[in-house]
Known about the structure:
By secondary structure, chain A is α/β, with parallel strands linked by helices. In chain A, 42% of the residues lie in helices and 12% in strands. Chain A contains eight helices and six strands; from the N terminus they run αββββαααααβαβα.
Amino acid sequence: MPKNKLPRKSTHIDMTAMCDVAFLLLTFFMLATKFKPDEPVIVTTPSSISQIKIPPNAILLTMDPKGQVFFGYDNTEAKAIMIKDMSESRMLNLTPEEQQQFVIGASFGGSLSQLKEYLSLDPYERKKFPFKGVPINDSSSDLTYNELVYWVQSARSAGDNIGKTPRICIKADSKTPYPKVKKVLDILVDNEIDRFNLITSAEAIPSGSAADIAQQGTDG
Amino acid sequence: MADIEVKGGKKGGSKRKKLSTRVDLTPMVDLGFLLITFFMFTTTMAKPKTMEIIMPSKKKTPKPNKVKDYTAMTILLSKKNKVYYYYGIGSDPANPPKIELTDFKPQGGLRDAIIKLKNNVAEYKQVNVNQPGVEASDEATILIKPDTNSTYADMVNSLDEMQINGIETYALIDITKEDRSFIKLKDNVQSSGN
């Protein structure tokens, strides 16, 4: 190669590699983003200054503005154990496919008698399923009538079995009437569950308030 | 990959050959990183936060705490996100408490009333030091009584106010008949005043 060719080389930096990296990362983040699972109801949570994150393996009790309760569980492993036990103990006769559908599915808000019908639907039909909420009755200690207790206890024992004790998260809509929320809380307290996480959206701490001063104290 | 040199390699062409046919990838990289930033932020920010709440267990029945009247404030949550409050526990029927109507506004709302309570308690403790019934460990105590026509947002907002104002002792309890009558009384005064 003759030396006089050198000046002709471009002084451009090749951006191709950088572009590759950028899009690789972009793809990663797009795929890693956990999109909200299809919830049967849209719930607008009230906001609070709390900074506590949702605990892992949580039991999620969603309450819509009418006060209907939906049961969800953020632990597929425990969910599989749970639905198997429930199918046996309550004679639901769920097929393994239906059980699998439950494990990967979203929250369920119906009575146990509706469960088999719901799970046998195809995913599109399932979205239109007319839910009326998990039945909660006044006789809160009686498991036959109070299916919410049954759901929560099954979920807890399944979680305990694999060493991942779940916490209970309550995600209620801002407009949910207080008595409905209180009823759910009472039912759970009656069954010796007294620690809850109320899911809220984040809000800035007002400056100058006691919480603000306390936080500055820990930061500095 | 991206640069296509149409005339590259051919010797002795026209002057045009010197013009680079490379595509400038800088804007594309910019865009890529912008989107990365967007996805990074949305992934972390979409996570909702939670508020921990521990309800008193019914089975264990701990010794009920006696709330001292001077440290107490009662908040009544009513319909249309209205908040009524009074200082004290309102247990003396002969001397009904002064009910105030407020809301959850950051200025001039419930927050100011709670700050006032904290100041009052601190002041009272300073003035009445060593008096019977006044202990150094006394602190502002708030009783939250949501009425049946209040919503979940009211409850969360009032619990949030406890956090904002650093109130350590508070309880969520059932509303009483007396408290309902206080609300009614206040509403009547309000409507006749207008």
